[in-house]
Write a structure and sequence with these properties.
Number of helices: 10
Strand content: 15-25%
Radius of gyration: 17 Å
Mean pLDDT: 91
Largest sheet: 7 strands, parallel
Low-confidence stretches: none
Oligomer: single chain
Order of helices and strands: EHEHEHEHEHHHEHHHE
Helix content: 40-55%
Distance between the termini: 38 Å
C-alpha cells in the first residue's frame, strides 16, 4: 500500500490532531505517524480507544501522547497544552478536526461553542508552541464552507452555520500566524461516508446521504478524506487558504 505521506518526511516533527480517537481524526493522526511524526491523540470521552490507537502508533517507532480534553473548557485546553509542552516542547502541525453539534442532550448553543469558540481557544493556546514553519489545518465541510450562498438540509443548518463561523474566526488570524511563520489552510469536504455526522444525519433524514451521493457522483470515505487532511499539513497552501475535496458543482462560491 502506497503511504499517504513520504516515509520519514515528518521525522522530528510533532503533530496534534483534535478529536483523533476515531474517524477522520484517527486516520489523520495515523498517516502523520506513518510519516515519522510524534503525535498527540486528543479525545473527549473515548480513552480506551485513544490508548489503543496510541499503542498501535508507538509500534511504528514514534512517540504518542494521549490527552483527554474538553475543548469547550478553557482550563481543560490549557492543561492539554501544558502536557504537550512538557512532553514535546512544541508543535509543528495542529489539525483542528474535532467538531459536533448534532449530539442530543447538549446546550442550545453547543454547536457554536465547539465549532467556533473552541477552535479559536485551541489555536490561541497552541500558538506559543507552534514553531516557525508549522502548519494549522482546519477541517470543515462544503455544506458549512458554502453555507452563506448555498442552503443545506435543515437538520445540518445550525452545525453548518457554526462551522462557517469558526472558519471565519480562524481566518481573521491568518496575518498574525503568518508573522510567526505559521501556515494556515482549510480543508473542506463533502459529506463523508462512515462518519458520526453522516450517521446522525441519516437518522434525522434517511435520504440525506443517498441523495447527496447521487448529486455528487461519489462521496469520499473516512480514510480517503483523512488522507487529504494529512496531505494539507505538508502540501503548498492553496489560493485563498482553501483545499476543496470532492465535487463542488452543487455549491456557489462565496
Amino acid at each position: 500500500m502506497v503511504p499517504v505521506l513520504p516515509a520519514e518526511s515528518l521525522r522530528g516533527k510533532t503533530a496534534l490532531v483534535t478529536g483523533s480517537s476515531r474517524g477522520i481524526g484517527a486516520d489523520t493522526v495515523r498517516y502523520l505517524a506513518e510519516a515519522g511524526a510524534d503525535v498527540v491523540i486528543n479525545y473527549r470521552n473515548k480513552a480506551p480507544r485513544a490508548q489503543k490507537l496510541a499503542d498501535q502508533l508507538r509500534a511504528l517507532g514514534v512517540r504518542a501522547l494521549v490527552v483527554g480534553a474538553d475543548l469547550t473548557d478553557q482550563q481543560s485546553v490549557d492543561d492539554m497544552f501544558a502536557q504537550i509542552e512538557s512532553e514535546f516542547g512544541g508543535l509543528d502541525v495542529l489539525v483542528l478536526n474535532a467538531s459536533g453539534g448534532m449530539e442530543s442532550g447538549m446546550a442550545a448553543d453547543y454547536a457554536l461553542q465547539l465549532n467556533r469558540d473552541a477552535q479559536v481557544r485551541v489555536l490561541e493556546a497552541a500558538t506559543p508552541l507552534l514553531r516557525a514553519g508549522s502548519r494549522v489545518v482546519f477541517v470543515t465541510s462544503h455544506q458549512a464552507h458554502f453555507i452563506d450562498t448555498t442552503p443545506t438540509m435543515p437538520e445540518y443548518e445550525q452545525v453548518a452555520l457554526s462551522k462557517r463561523a469558526g472558519e471565519d474566526a480562524l481566518r481573521e488570524r491568518i496575518p498574525q500566524l503568518a508573522e510567526h511563520g505559521i501556515g494556515f489552510v482549510v480543508v473542506s469536504g463533502d459529506m463523508i461516508e462512515g462518519t458520526i455526522t453522516a450517521t446522525l444525519l441519516a437518522r434525522a433524514n434517511p435520504d440525506a446521504i443517498a441523495s447527496r451521493r447521487a448529486d455528487a457522483g461519489r462521496l469520499y470515505n473516512v480514510a480517503e478524506f483523512a488522507a487529504e487532511v494529512a496531505s494539507a499539513a505538508v502540501d503548498p497552501i492553496p489560493a485563498d487558504n482553501i483545499r476543496l475535496v470532492g465535487d463542488v458543482s452543487s455549491f456557489v462560491a462565496p
